[in-house]
Design goal:
Elements lengths: L1 H6 L2 E4 L14 H9 L9 H7 L2 E6 L2 E4 H9 L4 H19 L7 H11 L1
Parallel strand pairs: 1-2
Antiparallel strand pairs: 2-3
Helix pairs in contact: 2-4, 2-5, 3-5, 5-6
Amino acid sequence: MRTSYEAASIVLVLDSWLQTQRMQNYSDAEVLLKILTSLWNTRLWTLQEGALGKRLFFEFSDGFYDADAGLQKLHGETDLLVSFLLKPVIFQRFEDFRGFRKHHRSIDQIVALSHGL
């Protein structure tokens, strides 16, 4: 599976609960929190899906959500509550599995892998 995920331009995550949820009219922080609290995070292959794909999309009932683009938009969020309470948690959790891609030394990958698990 590793080769498939690494070679994929886009990985589309299909989670039965997320597919019943709407993303329209929700902030990026709210959509990203839905992703982080979904059962997708409890499955073994989640780490490979999240860590190895070049781009990561999630299917919701009303469309597809680009998690990397959502994280970029969240960087610009100026709401104080979101900035101080939610952004650190969201960025850390996504870094735990998306950050694996940017590490080139084995020890850094092991640390990223342990955080992701």
